[in-house]
Every structure is written in C-alpha cells, then in structure tokens.
C-alpha cells in the first residue's frame, strides 16, 4: 500500500526488488514469508464480482456524460411542475441504454473471469522441500521466490530467473509467439549453477516493468555479485522449446509479470471527425437552449395576454395561479425534456455500430489478404477508420516496409577485389519469377500448397502462423561467383585446415566471419517444434495428383527453368514419400539444398556432404543471408551454442571455435562482434561486422578501395556490411574481461558501460571485406507511392539506412523523380557541433529564400528533400523547427536517413502539431514503434522483424501496396460514409424534434406533444435507426475500381470536404425547413377543423418519417438489396407498429391517447394527400439542388460515378481521357510529368535542370540556376553540399 | 473453428463481404430529373384541380354568436348576471344548402391542447371502473375532490370545462318556426363510444346509483348521468357531446360536431329560406378573448371546406413544371458545351 514505507522498512532502495528462496520458510506462516509483499501468480482481469457488479457498473456508466444527461432529463420529469411526459415513461430510454450496456459489460467480464480461472488452474511444477522434488501445483499457487520447473512445450507460468536447464550448455530455448508474435526461438542462458535446497543467494532485480527486451539484476551470494539480464529471464506466456526441462526462481508473478504489464487494453483514439462532431453537438446544445428560451419567453408573453383566468387553466393545489415568470422557468425545463432528442445521444451508439461494420468490411477485403502469410488486414483500433480517409502525410519506414526485408546476398569485396556475382543476380530474378508465377497460376486453382519450392509458404498457409526465421528461397539460393569460388578453392588446397598462409587467407577468414559473426541459431533437431505438420493423407494424395501437371505446365512456360526441373522433381518426390508416411512428418527436415541448383561439383559435394540438413533461425534477415552465402561457398555453420560454434569448411573438416564473448548489436555502435578462440592456433580472434560508418573509423589501415566499392554498392541500393578481424593477445583479453564483467554486473548505467567496453575492444581492426546485400522493393511500391501522391498525400520516408542507399531506393520507388530538384542536407561529421549548427541554419535559410522563386513561376518545380540524421537532429531543435516545417510544406518528397527511432517520432510529431495535418506512419520493425504511436494513424506491417510494430499499430497490413487500397478505397469510403451518416443524424433529430417545437406556438408553449411519447421512442429506436447505420456502413459513392484509378478523388477527405461546418449548418437549415413543411402543411390542412391532438400528430409523424427516409434515399448513392430491404422495411415497420400500437393501447399511456388514430387517419384519403404533398414539398429544394449541381457543377465524384455506371470498355476509355486531361492541367502548376517537363523548360528559360547522366555516381541531381543574380545564394542552395561549400556558406 | 484442410484466414470472396453487391446507382442529372419533375407536376396539378373543385362545391356558413358587439342578439347574455340566458340568431339561405349538413359549434383562443389541461382527466374512471369513482387519479387535481372532499366524476379540468351551450335550429316557414332536427347520434368516434369509454354497471337497476358518493364537476349544472334528459341512453360517459368534448382539439381555433341534419324534410339539405338559431347561452369565453360560433357545413370525401390543399397541390405542381422547364434549358445549354469539351 505504501511502497516507500516498504522500502524504508526493508532498508533498500526503491528501484529494486529483493527475492530470496521460499524454501526455508515453507512451513511457516504467511506472516513470516519474506516475499509475501509481492503479488502472487493468480491473475484477476475481471472487474466485477457478483455483488459488486451493479454498483460498480452503474458507477462506471454514469461516468459518461451522455448517461448523466439522460438521467438529468428523466429526473426533471419527476418534478410535477415541469414534466412533459409521464415520469415513469421518461425513464425508459435511460433504462434501456443502461441495461444493454450492463449486459454487454457483464458478458465481457464473465468471459474474462472464465479465462482467468482456466489460466489460474493450469498445472505446473513447484519445488517442495518436504517432498524433495518438484510437485504439481496450480499456477495461482506460485509465489515469488518459488522454484518452478517448466518442461518442454509447456507455457511458462511466471517470470522466472533461469537457474538450470537440462541442456548441458545451460541453454534454454523459448518461443515468444504468444507475447510478441515472433516465432523465432530465443535463447535463454543459465548464469549460475543451482540447487534448490542449498540456494541461499539473494536475487536483486528491477521493479516490475513492461519492457520485454530489458531486465537487469544480480545474484548476491557470499558478497559475490553475478549479473544477469534479459537473457536469463523466462517470460510468462512463452513456451519452452528444444529443452527438456528448465527451472528457476520466480521473480515476478501474476500481475507483475512483463506479459501482464504489457497486456494493454486496446487504446482509444479519438478520430478527427468525432472531435469535430463534438463541437457540433455543442452547437446542438446551444440550439436547444435557444429553443427552450423561446418557449419560456413565449409562454410568459402568452400568459400576459390574458386579462383574466381562462376556463382551461389549471390552478395549483392552493387554487392560485403560478406567477408568469415562474411558469416561464418551468416551461424552460419542460422544453428541455420535450426537445432533448435534438442532442443526438444515440449518435454515439450508432457511430460505434457503424465503425464495427466498417471494420468488418475492411478486414473482409480479399485484396488486403496476404496469401503468403495467410493474414488478413487487422484493425486494432476500432474507432479511427474514417481517419484513413483524411491522411495528408504518410511517414514510411524503408526496410521491410518499402522493401521486402528479404535479403539477397548480391556482391562482395574482399581485400579490395570486387566479386560481382552476376549469376546470383539472375538467379534472384528467376526465383522471383517463379514465385510470381505460382501466385498467379497455382494460387488461383487453390492447389497452392503443393509446390516444393514453396515449402516455406506452404507451411505458413497450412498452419496460419507468420513466417519465421528468414529462410525463404530468396535468402537461401545463392549462386557463388566463379572467380571467388576458384580462389577460395585454391587457397584451401594450398594450406592445411586452419593453417593457411598469409597469402589469400583473408578469403577464408572472410567467409568464416560471415559464418561465425552472427547470432544465427542452427536448429537441426526440430522435433520439438512439430506443431506444424503436413496435412492428413487425404490432402496430400490430392496434391500428389495435381502436382506433376502443374509442374509441367510451369516449366513449359519458362524454358529457362528446365534445368531446374530435375532438381525440383527430385525434391518433390521426396516430399511425397514423406507425405505418404501415415505418421505426420514435419516439413522442417526436408532437405532443400540450395546449392543443388548449381552444377558446380565441388560445391554440391561439400554442401551435401553432411548427413543432417541445417536450418537457420536468424533474428535479422541480413544475418540469414550472410550465413547462407557462406554456406554456398562451403562454409557451413553447423552448430552454435553459447560456448562454441562449429563451421564446416569446404574441405569437409569441421572447425569448432570456443566462443569467449559476443558483443551484441546495438544501434548506437551499429556493429556486433564475436570473440572466439581458434581451435588450432588457440589465438583469440575478434570478428566484427557492422555498417561502414561504424567500422571505417576503427580500422588499422584506411581501406580506400573497399570504401569505393561500398559507395558503389550503396548507390546500387545495396545494404553494406563490413567484416573485420583482429587478433587479441591473451593479456589484453583478460584485462578487458574484468572490465566487461564489471559492466555486466552493474545496474546503474549498465547499458552505457557495456557499450563502452564493447567499443574498447573493437579497435584496431583489420578489414577483411564487405558485402552488399540487396533488399528488393516490395511489389507495386512505386505504383503505390505514385497513387498516394496523386491523392495529394505527402510521402516521407524515414529510414535508418545510409544516405546513398536511401536515395537510391527513393529513386527506384519513385519517391524522388529524376526531374525533381533535390536539396540534400548533410552536415559532415568532421565539423564541430557549433559549426554544424551554423551551416545547417544557413542552408535552411538559403533554401527557404530560394524556394519562392520556383513557386511563383508558372512552372512549379517539385522539390525533394534529403536529410541526414545528424542534420535532422539540428533541424528539430526549437529555433530551426519553424524553417524546417516551412521547408517541408514546399517539398514533394522528404527522405530522412540515418534516423533514430526517436527522431522518426519527433518528425511526425512536429509536422503533425505545427501543420495540423493528419499523419499516418507505417513501419514494420521495433524501431518504428515510436513513430507509429506518434502519428494519428499507425499502420504496422506484419513483416520479418517480429510483431512490435503491429502491436503498436492501429491497423496492420502485410504489404506496403495494401496501403493504396486501404487509404484510397476504404479510408475514402469510411470517411464519406461516416461524415454523411453523422450529418444525416444531426439533420434527422432536428427535423423530427422541431415538429414539436412548432406545435408549441399553437399550444401556448405549454410543452404539449401532439405525437405519442411511445411513437417518439419508437421513431428513434425502430423506424429511423437502421437506415442511417446501414448508410454509414454500406453506402458507396464511387466503386473501388474507379477510386483506385483516380486517386485524386481522395483529396476531398483531406480537406474535410465531406464534413464541413457549412455542411452541418446546411443540414440543420434543411432540417428546419423540412420540419416547418411537415408541420405547417398538415396544420393548414386541418386548421379550424374538429381534428384532435393526436389525429393531427399522425400525419405529421408519418410525413416526417417519409421525409426523413426519402431524404436519405436522395443521399444514398448506390442501392443494393440491403438498402432496399432496410429502407422499405423501415416504412413497413412504421406502419405495422403504429397500427398495432394504436389498436392495442386503449388508455395505456395517459394523457396521450393514440387509440385508433392511425386507423382513423388511414381510412381518410386526405391523410395520403397530405403526406404526399408534405413529403414532396419538404424534399423539393434538396432534390432540385442535387439535380442542378449534378448538371451545372458536377464534382469529380459525380463524374467518377458517371464513369462507374458505364460499361467496362467505355469506362477504360473515359478514364484515359480523364487522366490525360488531368495531366494537362497538372502540367501547368507542376513539373511532375514528362510532358510537363517539356512545357516548363520552354516557358522558363531562367531555370535549367542539369541532369547528371548517371545517377549512380552523382549523389543527387544538382541544380544550377543559370541567371541567378546572387552568387552567394547559389552556393548555399547547391543541394550537393560538399563540406567546403558548407563552410563557405557558413562563413557568409 | 474446425481444423479442416481448408482452414485459412482467407476472407470469403462473396459479393457482400467484398462490397460488390449489384447496386443501382441513380445519378441525379437533369436528363433524369426533367421527366420526373414533369410527371410529378402533372400529377399534382391533376390532384390539385380535383381538390379545388371539390372544395369549391362545399358550402359552409359561420354564425358568430359571442355577442361582443352590443348589436348582437347575444350581447345580453354576456353579462355575468345572466342565468339561463337564451338568445337567437337569424340567418337566410338564398339557395338550397345541400345535405347532409353538419352542425358544428366553434371556439377560438381556446387552448384545449394546453398541456396541464390535457392531462387533467382520468382514463380509468371514464372507462367505467368504479374504483376510480371514489379515488380519482391525481392527474385530475385540482378537480379531483370538491371542497367537501367528495370525489368528482367525471374528474378533471377537461370534463369540468365542458361546453354547455345548447342549440335549436328553426326554419321560419310562413312566420311559423319549424324545428330542424339536429341528430346528435353518432357524432363521436365509434371507438370512443364503444371501447374507450363506458358507463358503470347499473346499481340496483338505477343508473344514478352507480354514481352515488360522487359529485358532479364544479362547473356543471347537471350530474353526468342526467346530461341528456331526452334520451336515457345518451347519458353518463357515453353522452355524445361529452365524448366529442373529451377528444381535445389540436389547435386553439377549433370546431366540434354538434349534430347532423339528415332527417325528414332536411335530408336533402336546408332549403332556401329564413332560419332562426336558438341558443342557450351559458359558456363564458369573452373573459379570455375567445369567440363562439356555429358552423353549418356540408362535407365531401375530403371533409370540410378547405381550399389550402387544392391550392397547394396546384402551386407545387406548377412549380415542378417550371422547374422542369428551367432544367431543360440548363440541360440543353450544358449538354452542348459538354459535347464540345469532351468528345
């Protein structure tokens, strides 16, 4: 209860938790248990108990303003002077709403209770001192300080510090799919030997927190501290794999566990439309106030007109008349009750229903379904669907979002020699072709799962789990470069294994580094993961029949694949023999030898030499690609344990290195290292790999040639990694080790210290070589970006990659165009911070000064902006922010490189807050989480790098191209639907309630309703509720096909074209007009006649219903069966219910007596005439306006609808025409298209775009304004700001 | 979810889930609107003409007998002192007033729809439930109990303020007054008479006994079971005038049916000639600025005389035709330019 008290009592610091073993206290009373203050393992996620349900639930419901409003109205009704309806009757709406909500809450809570009970009752093994062994208990019995054993494939019951594992190396594998969706196995390691009975150490660790990737603490035993981190913690909810048993001490239990602390409720975002809507609701409140005031004042004036008391006045109980002013106040309150519906409380409920429907349709979209991953689009946030239709800025990650994040080893350079791997490039291509071919031909016939090449995907689609471990064919199929292979062979032949001469040894060392320097896990025994199986014999027999034909067909179409066919067939045969086995066999152990594709004998021999096939599980696709590349050259990673790593050499010998330490990757150092001891020479060797920025400055000798190759790779859009080696002397190593261990055991600033020690070791490196890995663009990325841009969406790419790589990808995905004027903001590292700042400032002001020059000319140059992370950091500072934002608004494309996750989110936040624009962030990795959370709409790509991005996102898609349909179609639809629905809802309520208001002018403002109160309830509940909801879910103005073809239609949503303040007021004005008509046409018709109150109300009610329904009918853009059923159904329900009610209710609801009024009216022809006239007059203006607008000023949407209605071939013609027209229009203000380029250069001679012929060599197209009056500006503007130019501008 | 071979996450590819249901997409352009407007316009003009002609055929005669002006025969009855005051109004018909003629009385500035007034009745009492005879509902207050705490039947303000003037119509034939029979039967709603309202069962064979222990409303001169001295069946809650009164008028200016002239010599209507309307003037309206009148009217299928609907139909019909023409002009103009641009 009082944490500080506990801390003081314990005499410890507040940041930590101290855990000791429970065993010595096993028999003692709970009072004496040392760990009793920590939460137990029982979880309780249900909010209510049977007894507390009613009060707590009501309490929660009344926290909502709407409910309080309802109750207030109902309470007013109980004041006799004020009431407008029978008090009991007025309670109905609030009771209905409270009951429905309570039932929903109760049901949800009961479900939670059930799942809690099931979870708490799960058996587990806890050590018992009395029984000297692990005994079975329930999860809920576990306490902090217990020793728990988890067997293979069991779910871990609490957060356990691993102390023992059945594996001799003390390694335990854990699958965290339940927690973060990542299916690759994570290693956990025993740090200290352990025996439950004699365990007398104290565990000191952090307080519970929700960081899944971070944990620190130490074991204190006899003054010795042994530090441990997340790598020793088994997390609740994960599954133990590959390990027979693991045991440890519970450090966090129940609600303190990391998984429970991560278990957030779906977050609530308020959409922009909704917050705007709330303002309109306030307008309605104001309107209500005005109307009530009119009523009150009117009543007072009306009372004053009487000189004496009329016979129909009712004196109060004392026989006195109420003073008129007091009566006015009473009437004010009565009016509130009477006109309460004008504040559309039911709108909130309807919006929720509409959004549920919209989410249903979005997730159902088959175009957003990814066959490979068997994943649909997921909507994680349920209430911001319409925000998708208003996006103005898209912030995208690059790797894994624009690109596949499936790495292909493309080229490498060793000792300054470049090996282009030309065949490999081709192989990549045809593997890709094969894939796409399968997608189209095989996938369509639903025999997709049968292809052996497709192994990986097959498994996914059968099991429904996301792809794991980056071992798609793309990464595995590496064709070695002939020259390199030859030299490797030569070198190896010359030397004995491990004792190569100095000459050429680098080649071997390079591949060894490739194979060793990583964290790839080799899993040969996959028996533990047999969850995924081949389907039953039924299915495999079917696929067996189909397979040969489809394979034949495939090869017939692709003659170049013929050489592959034999290999494929042999594999597929093996598959079949496996499938025939009645015992289900795993798919993991089918050998797919990548190198069997190649005809090189040596390679084939070497890679097929081993009896067991290896399967790699890497945490990043780069690593997988590199290991596979090494394997292709014969350096096969065979085994990796924490203590040693085995590599098979091309010659067949196996080298087993002792692993001394692994300096794991972090983004600050941007490199990783492994320290191993050579088995033969016993040398301690450090292998380091990393980005060139992190490596080059730590080299012993500057490697110019390699640097040149690296630049070339980067220009080709390849990801580069450098590999280095260093021999460490024993002494140096052990000196360093002391520091290292100290750092590991530290709790304060541990990360920093660990990083520092790692950096200390990684000095004086010797460069072995570098690799270029291709990350291919996802399909349709350029088209998608193009479409988004046509839709008026600014696309910004924020990536951690280096500038050249990013710029190159930007060109290839059409983010930047060759015609674009590109400004590059790149301050060199060598400057001092103050100077950098000055340079940056000058660049910014110079650019900004220059920009209007281009804007004012009739030919507007589209501007691209490339910013380096370091410069971005400066620009985000408060004094440069304004300029930066201003610059961004002028740019067509923004590309930020070398950005940290924090910078990404700061850019998003800055633009979002300064420009007030709607932003969307899309990314796939953990480094995008910040950005995704900062944006209005966060989209996660469920890709290769785990699920963190998806977990943080509002929407999860599987390919970048899906963004196009998601925004342009679903976003557009959702926005328009919801905006129209909300407007209609406001209109509907005002139009109906105003009938009552007009009547007040004829009943002395006394608050009489001429419509039965039940009918009013029914009217909102049954008669007119379904149509707007259906309208909000299903209406479709323009079809998906046309929306995709004409992205510019999206612009309406961005400028809130569907839902403006003016739209609202027009709707309200129309509502006033229509209610006037609905009231006064019957009024004049029956004026002076002998009609009674409720008989007059009947045609008004009916005409109002028709008006409201037909109003919607005018607004509905496409009528499907559902529309017809609901619209016609509403009218039918109205008549049925009204007739039934009028026939049954003789005097059930005094004072109103609707008995037989409907029947009476319906037998009178006048009723129909009045209803028809009223409806027509009420709708005439809107209908005419629509008709005139359709003819005089057809909007883009209307034209699109016309196109929609055309037969397909006409439609295509039209679309082409349209596009041509648009291009022509667009060519004047902008330079985006090639035709426009022609126009503009002709028109503006003052501007010449100097286009570098080879973009691969120039960093960006440079610009030279020819007739610029001020030379100083030229320099500061020159986008290719070399350091010296930057200095110049700084000096100026 | 069953683990069948086809178990995938793939969404159903149906027209509904993919939002590809065949849809009718009406586009409101002039081309479609013009015929629509024309049709509506023509139909409305047709209906309007029919209504207008029908309404023109209906004749009605209003006789205001409030007696505000000193010249009015009923002026004498407006003073408070007047008890059982009778006055008579003369009128002349030049042509036959075609039958069946309905005889209404009308009031103005009379807010029967005033909220507290409208509430002031007891539906259970009126349905003949004798429990409520002794215990009228609170809604009737302050006309629930009289000063001696006796329950009032029928309670409430509506009943209390029942219109109490009575009328007799005479045709003056050769100086002799010939009474025109006013049929007061069947002027209330059938459902009111037969279902909604009913009298209490007779007690000891006497109707009056059923009401024992109750008192008449304050303003009434006779108890409810003696409302119609001429016809025993027309008494109690089923008195036709009472039923008509209890059905509250929707608007402050209203008329209520008093009787029909459909019998004997007057079945075809009121022939031309001089008539005298004898009024038993007792209902005060001048105090609140109201007026009283008697209305004679013959009705058609569309009820009483009402010009509004016919005229409205004609106006709207014409408006539609005009709109159609305007549209036509606009359409012709724009169609032309459209062709120039796009084709």
From TrEMBL, chain A:
InterPro entries: ATPase_P-typ_cyto_dom_N, ATPase_P-typ_P_site, ATPase_P-typ_TM_dom_sf, ATPase_P-typ_transduc_dom_A_sf, HAD-like_sf, HAD_sf, P-type_ATPase_IV, P-type_ATPase_N. Mg(2+) binds at residues 397, 399, 924, 928. It is a multi-pass membrane protein. It catalyses: ATP + H2O + phospholipidSide 1 = ADP + phosphate + phospholipidSide 2; a beta-D-glucosyl-(1<->1')-N-acylsphing-4-enine(out) + ATP + H2O = a beta-D-glucosyl-(1<->1')-N-acylsphing-4-enine(in) + ADP + phosphate + H(+). GO terms for biological process: phospholipid translocation. Residues 950-1194 form the P-type ATPase C-terminal domain. Keywords: ATP-binding, Endoplasmic reticulum, Magnesium, Membrane, Metal-binding, Nucleotide-binding, Translocase, Transmembrane, Transmembrane helix. Residues 1244-1278 have a biased composition (Polar residues). PROSITE patterns: ATPASE_E1_E2. It holds the Pfam family Cation_ATPase. The chain crosses the membrane at residues 281-302, 329-351, 999-1023, 1064-1085, 1091-1114, 1121-1146, 1166-1185. It comes from the Eukaryota. This is Phospholipid-transporting ATPase.
């Amino acid at each position: 209860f009082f944490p500080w008290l506990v801390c003081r009592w314990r005499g410890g610091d507040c940041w930590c938790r101290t855990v000791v073993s429970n065993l010595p206290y096993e028999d003692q009373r709970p009072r004496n248990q040392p760990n009793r203050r920590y939460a137990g393992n029982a979880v309780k996620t249900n909010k209510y108990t049977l007894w507390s349900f009613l009060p707590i639930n009501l309490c929660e419901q009344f926290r909502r303003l709407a409910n309080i409003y309802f109750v207030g109205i109902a309470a007013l009704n109980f004041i006799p002077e004020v009431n407008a309806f029978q008090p009991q009757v007025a309670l109905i709406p609030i009771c209905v709403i409270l009951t429905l909500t309570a039932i929903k809450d109760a049901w949800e809570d009961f479900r939670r209770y059930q799942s809690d009970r099931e979870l708490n009752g799960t058996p587990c093994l806890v050590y018992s001192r009395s029984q000297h062994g692990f005994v079975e208990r329930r999860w809920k019995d576990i306490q902090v300080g217990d020793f728990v054993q988890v067997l293979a494939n069991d779910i871990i019951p609490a957060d356990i510090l691993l102390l023992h594992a059945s594996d001799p190396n003390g390694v335990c594998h854990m699958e965290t799919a339940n927690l973060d969706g990542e299916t690759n196995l994570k290693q956990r390691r025993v740090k200290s030997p352990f025996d439950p009975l004699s365990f007398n150490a104290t565990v000191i660790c952090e307080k519970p927190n929700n960081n899944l990737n971070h944990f620190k603490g130490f074991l204190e035993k006899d003054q010795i501290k042994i530090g441990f981190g997340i790598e020793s913690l088994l997390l609740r909810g994960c599954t133990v794999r590959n390990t027979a048993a693991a045991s440890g001490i519970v450090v966090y239990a129940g609600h303190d566990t990391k998984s429970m602390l991560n278990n957030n409720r779906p977050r609530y975002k308020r959409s922009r439309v909704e917050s705007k809507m709330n303002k309109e609701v306030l307008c309605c409140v104001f309107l209500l106030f005005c109307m009530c005031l009119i009523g009150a004042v009117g009543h007072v004036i009306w009372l004053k007109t009487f000189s004496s008391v009329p016979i129909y006045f009712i004196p109060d109980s004392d026989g006195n008349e109420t003073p008129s002013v007091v009566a006015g106040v009473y009437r004010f309150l009565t009016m509130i009750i009477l006109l309460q519906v004008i504040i559309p409380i039911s709108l909130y409920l309807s919006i929720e229903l509409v959004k549920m429907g919209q989410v249903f349709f979005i997730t159902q979209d088959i175009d957003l379904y990814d066959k490979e991953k068997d994943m649909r689009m997921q909507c994680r946030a349920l209430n911001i669907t319409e925000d998708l239709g208003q996006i103005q800025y898209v912030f995208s990650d690059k790797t894994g979002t624009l690109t596949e994040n499936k790495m292909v080893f493309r080229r490498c350079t060793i000792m300054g020699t470049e090996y282009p791997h030309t065949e490999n490039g081709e192989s990549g291509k045809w593997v890709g072709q094969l894939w796409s071919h399968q997608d189209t031909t095989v996938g369509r016939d639903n025999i997709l799962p049968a292809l052996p090449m497709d192994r990986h995907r097959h498994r996914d689609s059968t099991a429904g789990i996301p792809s794991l471990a980056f071992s798609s064919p793309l990464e595995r199929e590496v064709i070695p470069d002939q020259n390199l292979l030859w030299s490797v062979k030569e070198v190896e032949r010359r030397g004995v294994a491990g004792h190569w001469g100095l000459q050429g040894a680098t080649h071997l060392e390079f591949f060894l580094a490739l194979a060793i320097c990583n964290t790839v896990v080799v899993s040969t025994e996959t028996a533990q993961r047999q969850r995924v199986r081949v389907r039953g014999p039924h299915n495999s027999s079917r696929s067996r029949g189909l397979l040969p034909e489809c394979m034949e067909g495939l090869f017939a179409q692709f003659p170049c694949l013929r050489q592959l066919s034999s290999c494929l067939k042999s594999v597929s045969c093996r598959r079949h023999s496996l499938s025939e086995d009645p015992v289900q066999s795993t798919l993991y152990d089918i050998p797919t030898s990548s190198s069997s594709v190649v005809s090189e004998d040596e390679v084939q021999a070497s890679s097929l030499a081993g009896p067991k096939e290896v399967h790699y599980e890497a945490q990043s696709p780069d690593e997988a690609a590199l290991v596979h590349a090494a394997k292709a050259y014969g350096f096969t990673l065979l085994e990796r344990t924490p203590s040693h790593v085995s590599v098979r050499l091309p010659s067949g010998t196996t080298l087993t290195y002792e692993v001394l330490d692994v300096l794991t990757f972090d983004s600050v150092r941007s490199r990783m290292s492994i320290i191993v001891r050579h088995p033969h020479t016993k040398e301690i060797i450090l292998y380091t790999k990393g980005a060139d920025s992190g490596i080059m400055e730590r080299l012993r000798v500057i490697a110019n040639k390699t640097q040149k190759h690296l630049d070339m790779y980067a220009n080709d859009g390849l990801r580069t990694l450098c590999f280095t080696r260093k021999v460490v002397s024993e002494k140096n190593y052990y000196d360093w080790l002391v520091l290292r261990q100290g750092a590991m055991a530290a709790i304060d600033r541990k990360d920093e210290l660990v990083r520092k020690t790692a950096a200390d070791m990684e000095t004086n490196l010797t460069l072995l070589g570098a690799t270029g890995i291709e990350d291919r663009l996802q399909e349709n990325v350029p088209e998608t970006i193009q479409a988004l841009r046509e839709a008026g969406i600014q696309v910004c790419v924020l990536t951690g990659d280096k500038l050249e790589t990013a710029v190159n990808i930007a060109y290839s995905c059409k983010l930047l165009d060759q015609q674009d004027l590109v400004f590059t903001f790149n301050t060199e590292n060598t400057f001092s911070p103050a100077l950098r700042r000055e340079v940056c400032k000058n660049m910014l002001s110079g650019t900004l000064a220059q920009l209007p020059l281009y804007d004012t000319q009739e030919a507007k140059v589209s501007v691209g902006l490339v910013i380096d992370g370091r410069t971005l950091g400066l620009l985000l500072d408060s004094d440069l922010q304004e300029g930066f934002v201003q610059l961004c608004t002028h740019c067509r494309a923004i590309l930020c490189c070398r950005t940290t996750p924090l910078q990404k989110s700061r850019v998003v936040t800055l633009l979002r807050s300064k420009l007030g624009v709607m932003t969307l962030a899309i990314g796939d990795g953990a480094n995008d989480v910040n950005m995704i959370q900062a944006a209005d709409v966060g989209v996660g790509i469920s890709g290769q790098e785990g699920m963190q991005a998806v977990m943080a996102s509002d929407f999860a898609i599987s390919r970048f191209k899906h963004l196009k349909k998601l925004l342009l179609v679903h976003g557009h639809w959702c926005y328009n639907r919801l905006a129209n629905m909300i407007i209609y809802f406001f209109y509907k309520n005002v139009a109906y309630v105003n009938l009552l208001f007009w009547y007040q002018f004829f009943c002395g403002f006394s608050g009489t309703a001429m419509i039965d109160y039940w009918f009013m309830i029914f009217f909102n509940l049954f008669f007119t509720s379904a149509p707007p909801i259906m309208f909000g879910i299903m209406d479709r103005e323009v079809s998906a096909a046309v929306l995709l073809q004409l992205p510019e239609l999206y612009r309406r949503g961005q400028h809130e074209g569907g839902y403006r303040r003016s739209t609202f007021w027009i709707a309200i004005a129309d509502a006033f007009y229509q209610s006037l008509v609905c009231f006064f046409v019957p009024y004049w018709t029956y004026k002076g006649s002998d009609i009674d109150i409720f008989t007059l109300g009947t045609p008004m009610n009916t005409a109002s219903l028709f008006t409201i329904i037909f109003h919607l009918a005018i607004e509905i853009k496409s009528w499907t069966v559902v529309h017809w059923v609901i619209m016609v159904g509403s009218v039918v329900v109205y008549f049925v219910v009204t007739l039934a009610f009028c026939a049954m209710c003789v005097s059930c609801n005094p004072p109103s007596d609707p008995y037989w009024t409907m029947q009476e009216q319906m037998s009178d022809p006048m009723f129909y005439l009045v209803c028809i006239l009223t409806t027509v007059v009420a709708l005439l203006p809107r209908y005419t306006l629509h008709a005139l607008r359709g003819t005089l000023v057809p909007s883009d949407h209307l034209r699109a609808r016309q196109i929609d209605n055309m037969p397909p071939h006409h439609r295509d013609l039209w679309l082409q025409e349209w596009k041509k027209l648009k291009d022509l229009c667009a060519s004047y203000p902008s330079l985006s298209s090639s035709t426009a380029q022609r126009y503009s250069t002709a028109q503006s001679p003052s501007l010449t775009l100097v286009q570098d012929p080879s973009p691969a060599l120039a960093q960006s197209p440079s610009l030279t304004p020819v007739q610029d009056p001020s030379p100083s500006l030229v320099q500061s503007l020159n986008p290719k700001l070399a350091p010296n130019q930057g200095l110049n501008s700084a000096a100026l | 979810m069953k683990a069948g071979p086809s178990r995938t996450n793939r969404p159903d590819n149906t027209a509904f889930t993919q939002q590809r249901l065949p849809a009718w997409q009406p586009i409101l352009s002039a081309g479609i609107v013009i015929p629509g407007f024309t049709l509506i316009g023509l139909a409305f003009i047709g209906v309007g003409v029919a209504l207008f002609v029908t309404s023109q055929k209906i004749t009605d005669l209003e006789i205001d007998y409030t007696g505000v002006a000193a010249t009015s025969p009923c002026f004498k009855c407006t003073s408070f002192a007047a008890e059982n005051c009778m006055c008579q109004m003369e009128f002349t018909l030049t042509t036959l007033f075609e039958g069946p003629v309905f005889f209404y009385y009308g009031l103005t500035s009379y807010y029967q729809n005033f909220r507290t007034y409208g509430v002031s009745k007891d539906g259970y009492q009126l349905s003949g439930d004798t429990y409520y005879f002794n215990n009228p509902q609170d809604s009737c207050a302050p006309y629930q109990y009289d000063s001696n705490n006796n329950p009032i039947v029928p309670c409430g303000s509506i009943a209390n303020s029942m219109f109490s003037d009575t009328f007799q119509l005479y045709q003056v034939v050769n100086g002799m007054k010939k009474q025109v029979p006013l049929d007061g039967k069947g002027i209330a709603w059938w459902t009111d008479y037969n279902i909604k309202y009913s009298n209490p069962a007779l007690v000891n064979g006497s109707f009056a006994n059923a009401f024992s222990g109750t008192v008449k409303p304050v303003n009434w001169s006779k108890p409810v079971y003696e409302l119609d001295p001429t016809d025993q069946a027309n008494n109690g809650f089923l008195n036709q005038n009472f039923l008509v009164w209890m059905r509250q008028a929707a608007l402050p200016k209203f008329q209520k049916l008093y009787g029909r002239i459909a019998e004997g010599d007057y079945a075809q209507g009121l022939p031309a000639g001089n008539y005298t309307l004898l009024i038993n003037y007792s209902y005060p309206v001048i105090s609140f600025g109201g007026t009283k009148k008697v209305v004679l009217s013959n009705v058609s299928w569309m009820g009483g005389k009402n010009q509004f609907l016919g005229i409205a139909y004609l106006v709207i019909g014409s408006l539609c035709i005009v709109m159609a023409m305007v549209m036509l002009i606009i359409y012709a103009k724009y169609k032309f330019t459209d062709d120039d641009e796009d084709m």
